[in-house]
Amino acid sequence: MMKISTKLTLYFTITVFILEVFILFFLHESIVNSRIREEVNSIQSRGESHHDVLEDHYSRQTLEHIALMESKTDTTVVVTDNQMEPIIASDRILPEMEQIIDKTSLNSSFYPNSRILEDNYRKNDYIATVSSFHSDSQAGYIYMFKNTGSLRALISELNSHFLIAGVLSLILMVFIHFILSKLLTRPLVKMKTATEKISNGVFNVRLPRAGNDELGQLSSAIQKLSDDLETIKAERAEFLANISHELRTPLTYVQGYTTVARREGIAEQERTKYLQIIEEETETIVKLVENLFELAKLDENTFTISKESFELCPFLNRLYSKVNPAFLNKKMRLHVKCDTNRIIHADPIRLEQILLNLLDNARKYSLEETTVTLTAIPDSKNVTFTLVDEGFGIDQTSLPNIFNRLYRVEKSRTRELGGSGLGLSIVKELVEAHKGEITVRSTSGKGTTVQIHIPIKENAT
Ligand SMILES: Nc1ncnc2c1ncn2[C@@H]1O[C@H](COP(=O)(O)OP(=O)(O)OP(=O)(O)O)[C@@H](O)[C@H]1O
Ligand SMILES: [Mg+2]
């Protein structure tokens, strides 16, 4: 597998290298061309000035003067007559010069102005221009030659400069790209290690904050995931510890009373009492296990709420008939107020489960001779259930915790009443599954008010 940093380095470098080759090539060509142009222009204009002088003052002396002047420079002038026969030259006429002159003689047309004969510095040893002159006594041509040796030397020096610059910048580029891609991929590698750790069950990973770009966001998302998983892990451990504790207590009772009940010579009345306790404790265990199963289903999202349309007030009246005997048993009063009947769209079984749980709490955590009132007020979109009791109430420090699983305000008292602390957490999950809201207000010693809003429209999501 090729590392992503290596890949990035490679791609960057290849791209920039191609660009660099193009740029250097064009730069090189234009420098060389403008240099050649300069050289050609300079011999051409010198040839023209010789031409002017010769047309005005053609004489042997002038010719010699011109030859003398050019012999001091690195250019060579050759003056010929009409037949391309040299009259005078500033230097020895080398074979290649002769060749150039011969070539022009083949094309014997008259050159009115100066002309470039050769500017290909790569192929030829000379660049050359020609111009014709026409004085009273003589007509002919002035050839200017310049050796390309110095030009070539210059260009080869330029080439080596370009080569060094190219190679150096390539090395620098590879280095920079390598560093850059390392910087870019380092957080990725860290995240990879972190996710590997998470998948191995180690949730306390720490990723450095990596800015606010996509990488940074990914990094904080992974960080959040690991934090959440850690919280869940801790919660689960605590929950399991609590459950085993909750189960152990009734099971200890069952075990203890079974031993006592089996003793011989025990009064029948005693035995019945012990068996009754065993039965009650077993009921507690069954209820606890049922509730846990309910919660497990809620957690797994395997349960579905199946909504249907039904009438609100008859539903509440049926509920009233169901629970009122328990209230009467405890010498308590229960009022159900449903002034506005309406067809609502909800899951009747789940809604009943919610209200039964709340009514159960209101009854359990109240003294005799108190009143519990359940009011249902529908509006166009929601129904609001308000359940008011005159019971023990919940103190302000415990109030935020009552929806936690297995949480009970006063462990000893609620245990006597058979509570396991799961009712309200189930209620909350069910209300949320209906996309509803639940709020609890309570004053210690005065009573508790629980309010639930639930959407009742058919198309309400
Ligand atoms: N209406 C209320 N008045 C006073 N205290 C309440 C009331 N409702 C709930 N509580 C307190 O909140 C705790 C949590 O309630 P929850 O219904 O979740 O559990 P529970 O009633 O103890 O057990 P379960 O409902 O599972 O049988 C209760 O133990 C109780 O202390
Ligand atoms: Mg309860």
Structure description:
The structure is a single chain. This protein is an alpha+beta fold and 461 residues long. It folds into 3 domains: 4-154, PAS domain (Beta-Lactamase, 2-Layer Sandwich); 214-298, Signal transduction histidine kinase, dimerisation/phosphotransfer (DHp) domain (Helix Hairpins, Orthogonal Bundle), CATH 1.10.287; 304-455, 2-Layer Sandwich (Heat Shock Protein 90), CATH 3.30.565. The protein contains 10 helices and 12 strands. A 5-stranded antiparallel β-sheet has the order 2-1-5-4-3, sandwiched between helices. A 5-stranded mixed β-sheet has the order 7-9-10-12-11, with helices on one face. The protein has a two-stranded antiparallel sheet with strand order 6-8. α4 (149-199) packs parallel to α5 (214-262), α5 packs antiparallel against α6 and α8 (348-364) runs antiparallel to α10.
Question: Could you give the topology of this structure?
Answer:
Blueprint: H1 4-56, H2 60-71, E1 75-81, E2 86-89, H3 95-106, E3 115-118, E4 126-134, E5 139-147, H4 149-199, H5 214-262, H6 268-300, E6 308-311, H7 312-329, E7 333-337, E8 343-346, H8 348-364, E9 371-378, E10 382-388, H9 411-416, H10 423-433, E11 437-443, E12 447-455
Parallel strand pairs: 7-9
Antiparallel strand pairs: 1-2, 1-5, 3-4, 4-5, 6-8, 9-10, 10-12, 11-12
Helix pairs in contact: 1-4, 4-5, 5-6, 6-10, 7-8, 8-10
Bound molecules: adenosine-5'-triphosphate and magnesium ion.
Residues 291, 357, 361-362, 365, 389, 391-394, 402, 407-409, 414, 419-425, 448 line the site of adenosine-5'-triphosphate.
